[in-house]
Specification:
Elements (H helix, E strand, L loop, with lengths): L1 E3 L13 H4 L5 E2 L3 E2 L2 E8 L2 H10 L1 E2 L2 E2 L9 E7 L2 E2 L11 H8 L1 H24 L2 E13 L2 E5 L8 E5 L15 H8 L14 H19 L5
Antiparallel strand pairs: 1-2, 3-9, 4-7, 4-8, 4-9, 5-6, 9-10, 9-11
Helix pairs in contact: 3-4
Length: 222
Protein backbone atom coordinates (compact mmCIF):
# COMPACT_ATOMS: atom_id res chain seq x y z
CA UNK A 1 0.00 0.00 0.00
CA UNK A 2 3.03 2.29 0.35
CA UNK A 3 3.35 5.02 -2.29
CA UNK A 4 6.12 7.21 -0.85
CA UNK A 5 7.65 8.61 2.33
CA UNK A 6 9.01 11.67 0.52
CA UNK A 7 6.94 14.63 1.71
CA UNK A 8 7.82 16.53 -1.49
CA UNK A 9 5.71 13.98 -3.38
CA UNK A 10 2.69 14.42 -1.11
CA UNK A 11 -0.34 16.39 -2.40
CA UNK A 12 0.54 20.11 -2.70
CA UNK A 13 -2.14 21.20 -0.25
CA UNK A 14 -0.30 19.60 2.67
CA UNK A 15 3.20 20.82 1.81
CA UNK A 16 2.70 23.58 4.39
CA UNK A 17 2.97 20.81 7.02
CA UNK A 18 6.23 19.49 5.56
CA UNK A 19 8.32 20.20 8.65
CA UNK A 20 5.86 18.39 10.88
CA UNK A 21 5.40 15.40 8.54
CA UNK A 22 8.97 14.86 7.37
CA UNK A 23 10.48 11.60 8.64
CA UNK A 24 7.29 10.48 10.37
CA UNK A 25 4.64 10.00 7.70
CA UNK A 26 3.91 8.15 4.47
CA UNK A 27 1.48 8.38 1.58
CA UNK A 28 -0.45 5.15 1.02
CA UNK A 29 -3.24 3.58 -0.98
CA UNK A 30 -6.38 3.07 1.10
CA UNK A 31 -7.28 -0.62 1.02
CA UNK A 32 -10.25 -2.62 2.24
CA UNK A 33 -8.77 -4.44 5.21
CA UNK A 34 -9.04 -8.21 5.56
CA UNK A 35 -9.99 -8.66 9.21
CA UNK A 36 -7.40 -11.28 10.12
CA UNK A 37 -4.14 -10.71 12.00
CA UNK A 38 -1.67 -12.89 10.10
CA UNK A 39 0.71 -14.07 12.81
CA UNK A 40 3.70 -16.26 11.91
CA UNK A 41 5.88 -17.91 14.52
CA UNK A 42 9.30 -19.50 14.08
CA UNK A 43 10.07 -19.83 17.80
CA UNK A 44 8.02 -20.69 20.88
CA UNK A 45 7.52 -17.47 22.82
CA UNK A 46 4.93 -15.20 24.38
CA UNK A 47 1.30 -16.30 24.09
CA UNK A 48 2.37 -19.25 21.92
CA UNK A 49 4.51 -20.60 24.76
CA UNK A 50 1.60 -20.22 27.19
CA UNK A 51 -0.76 -22.00 24.77
CA UNK A 52 1.73 -24.81 24.21
CA UNK A 53 2.18 -25.38 27.95
CA UNK A 54 -1.58 -25.59 28.34
CA UNK A 55 -2.62 -27.60 25.28
CA UNK A 56 0.49 -28.82 23.47
CA UNK A 57 -0.75 -26.96 20.40
CA UNK A 58 -1.21 -23.47 18.95
CA UNK A 59 -4.30 -22.60 16.91
CA UNK A 60 -5.04 -26.35 16.67
CA UNK A 61 -1.55 -27.01 15.25
CA UNK A 62 -0.06 -29.92 17.18
CA UNK A 63 3.60 -29.45 18.15
CA UNK A 64 6.23 -31.96 19.30
CA UNK A 65 6.29 -32.76 23.01
CA UNK A 66 9.12 -31.60 25.24
CA UNK A 67 9.72 -28.19 23.70
CA UNK A 68 11.17 -25.48 25.92
CA UNK A 69 10.41 -21.77 26.02
CA UNK A 70 12.06 -19.98 23.07
CA UNK A 71 12.81 -23.24 21.23
CA UNK A 72 12.95 -23.02 17.45
CA UNK A 73 9.92 -24.71 15.89
CA UNK A 74 10.41 -27.48 13.30
CA UNK A 75 9.13 -24.97 10.74
CA UNK A 76 7.38 -21.58 10.92
CA UNK A 77 3.65 -21.86 11.61
CA UNK A 78 0.71 -19.63 10.71
CA UNK A 79 -1.25 -18.77 13.86
CA UNK A 80 -3.81 -16.10 12.90
CA UNK A 81 -6.05 -14.15 15.24
CA UNK A 82 -9.17 -12.07 14.91
CA UNK A 83 -8.79 -8.36 14.23
CA UNK A 84 -10.78 -6.99 17.15
CA UNK A 85 -12.01 -3.39 17.15
CA UNK A 86 -11.86 -3.49 20.96
CA UNK A 87 -10.65 -5.95 23.56
CA UNK A 88 -8.26 -8.79 22.76
CA UNK A 89 -7.62 -10.50 19.44
CA UNK A 90 -8.63 -14.17 19.66
CA UNK A 91 -6.74 -17.14 18.13
CA UNK A 92 -8.17 -18.68 14.97
CA UNK A 93 -7.49 -21.98 13.24
CA UNK A 94 -7.26 -22.19 9.46
CA UNK A 95 -10.85 -23.43 9.10
CA UNK A 96 -12.11 -20.40 11.02
CA UNK A 97 -10.12 -18.09 8.74
CA UNK A 98 -11.63 -19.82 5.70
CA UNK A 99 -15.12 -19.40 7.13
CA UNK A 100 -14.44 -15.71 7.76
CA UNK A 101 -12.84 -14.65 4.47
CA UNK A 102 -13.20 -17.58 2.07
CA UNK A 103 -10.92 -20.49 1.22
CA UNK A 104 -8.96 -18.75 -1.54
CA UNK A 105 -8.28 -15.57 0.43
CA UNK A 106 -7.39 -17.59 3.54
CA UNK A 107 -4.83 -19.64 1.61
CA UNK A 108 -3.34 -16.57 -0.07
CA UNK A 109 -2.76 -14.61 3.14
CA UNK A 110 -1.31 -17.72 4.80
CA UNK A 111 1.08 -18.44 1.93
CA UNK A 112 2.18 -14.82 1.63
CA UNK A 113 2.70 -14.48 5.38
CA UNK A 114 4.94 -17.55 5.48
CA UNK A 115 6.80 -16.38 2.38
CA UNK A 116 7.55 -12.93 3.82
CA UNK A 117 8.54 -14.46 7.15
CA UNK A 118 11.06 -16.77 5.46
CA UNK A 119 12.71 -13.90 3.58
CA UNK A 120 12.67 -11.56 6.59
CA UNK A 121 14.05 -14.26 8.89
CA UNK A 122 17.04 -14.77 6.59
CA UNK A 123 17.64 -11.04 6.38
CA UNK A 124 17.47 -10.70 10.18
CA UNK A 125 19.96 -13.54 10.67
CA UNK A 126 22.39 -11.83 8.31
CA UNK A 127 22.29 -8.88 10.73
CA UNK A 128 22.81 -11.01 13.84
CA UNK A 129 19.15 -11.10 14.84
CA UNK A 130 16.53 -13.81 15.24
CA UNK A 131 13.02 -13.01 14.00
CA UNK A 132 11.02 -15.03 16.50
CA UNK A 133 7.53 -14.07 15.36
CA UNK A 134 5.71 -11.33 13.53
CA UNK A 135 2.32 -10.31 12.17
CA UNK A 136 1.09 -8.97 8.86
CA UNK A 137 -2.12 -7.38 7.64
CA UNK A 138 -3.55 -7.57 4.15
CA UNK A 139 -6.29 -5.77 2.26
CA UNK A 140 -7.94 -5.48 -1.13
CA UNK A 141 -6.92 -2.68 -3.47
CA UNK A 142 -8.27 -2.56 -7.02
CA UNK A 143 -9.24 -6.21 -6.76
CA UNK A 144 -5.82 -7.43 -5.61
CA UNK A 145 -4.65 -8.57 -2.18
CA UNK A 146 -1.82 -6.33 -0.98
CA UNK A 147 0.25 -5.99 2.17
CA UNK A 148 -0.95 -3.10 4.33
CA UNK A 149 -0.05 -1.43 7.63
CA UNK A 150 3.50 -1.49 8.97
CA UNK A 151 5.56 -4.66 8.74
CA UNK A 152 8.62 -6.11 10.44
CA UNK A 153 9.12 -3.37 13.02
CA UNK A 154 9.49 -3.89 16.79
CA UNK A 155 5.79 -2.99 17.09
CA UNK A 156 4.72 -6.13 15.26
CA UNK A 157 7.76 -8.40 15.49
CA UNK A 158 9.84 -10.06 18.17
CA UNK A 159 13.58 -9.68 17.46
CA UNK A 160 16.26 -11.41 19.56
CA UNK A 161 20.05 -10.93 19.41
CA UNK A 162 21.60 -14.18 18.15
CA UNK A 163 24.63 -13.89 20.40
CA UNK A 164 22.42 -13.96 23.51
CA UNK A 165 19.97 -16.66 22.41
CA UNK A 166 19.48 -19.54 24.84
CA UNK A 167 16.42 -21.82 24.76
CA UNK A 168 14.69 -22.55 28.04
CA UNK A 169 14.11 -18.96 29.11
CA UNK A 170 12.66 -15.68 27.86
CA UNK A 171 15.06 -13.78 25.61
CA UNK A 172 16.40 -10.26 25.58
CA UNK A 173 14.32 -8.69 22.84
CA UNK A 174 14.01 -5.57 20.72
CA UNK A 175 10.24 -5.13 20.86
CA UNK A 176 7.41 -3.92 23.08
CA UNK A 177 7.65 -6.92 25.42
CA UNK A 178 9.42 -4.62 27.89
CA UNK A 179 6.22 -2.56 28.12
CA UNK A 180 4.05 -5.68 28.40
CA UNK A 181 6.21 -7.00 31.25
CA UNK A 182 5.89 -3.73 33.12
CA UNK A 183 2.11 -3.65 32.69
CA UNK A 184 1.85 -7.30 33.80
CA UNK A 185 3.58 -6.32 37.04
CA UNK A 186 0.77 -3.88 37.89
CA UNK A 187 -2.58 -4.43 39.53
CA UNK A 188 -4.39 -3.41 36.33
CA UNK A 189 -7.28 -5.38 34.84
CA UNK A 190 -6.43 -4.33 31.25
CA UNK A 191 -9.49 -2.09 31.07
CA UNK A 192 -8.83 1.19 29.20
CA UNK A 193 -7.46 3.71 29.75
CA UNK A 194 -4.07 2.21 30.46
CA UNK A 195 -1.74 3.50 33.17
CA UNK A 196 0.81 6.14 32.30
CA UNK A 197 4.23 4.64 31.63
CA UNK A 198 7.15 5.77 33.82
CA UNK A 199 9.91 7.69 32.08
CA UNK A 200 12.34 4.81 32.63
CA UNK A 201 10.08 2.32 30.81
CA UNK A 202 9.65 4.73 27.90
CA UNK A 203 13.41 5.32 27.76
CA UNK A 204 14.33 1.63 27.82
CA UNK A 205 11.72 0.76 25.19
CA UNK A 206 12.94 3.56 22.93
CA UNK A 207 16.51 2.29 23.27
CA UNK A 208 15.42 -1.20 22.19
CA UNK A 209 13.58 0.13 19.14
CA UNK A 210 16.57 2.25 18.13
CA UNK A 211 18.96 -0.67 18.54
CA UNK A 212 16.76 -2.86 16.31
CA UNK A 213 16.63 -0.12 13.66
CA UNK A 214 20.39 0.34 13.67
CA UNK A 215 21.10 -3.38 13.43
CA UNK A 216 18.57 -4.10 10.70
CA UNK A 217 19.32 -1.09 8.50
CA UNK A 218 23.03 -0.83 9.20
CA UNK A 219 22.45 2.88 9.76
CA UNK A 220 24.14 4.06 13.01
CA UNK A 221 22.00 7.21 13.10
CA UNK A 222 18.25 7.81 13.11
Amino acid sequence: HLITTNVDDFPPEIHKYKELLSGRSMLVNKAERIDVECVVRAYLAGSAWRAYKKDGSICDIELPTGLKESDKLPEPIFTPTTKAESGHDMPMNQKEVEDAVGVEVAQTIKDKSLEIMAAAGQEAESKGLILSDTKFEFGFYEGEIILIDEALTPDSSRFWPMDDYEPGRSQRSFDKQYVRDYLDSLDWDKTPPGPELPEEVVKKTTERYMEAYKRITGNPKL
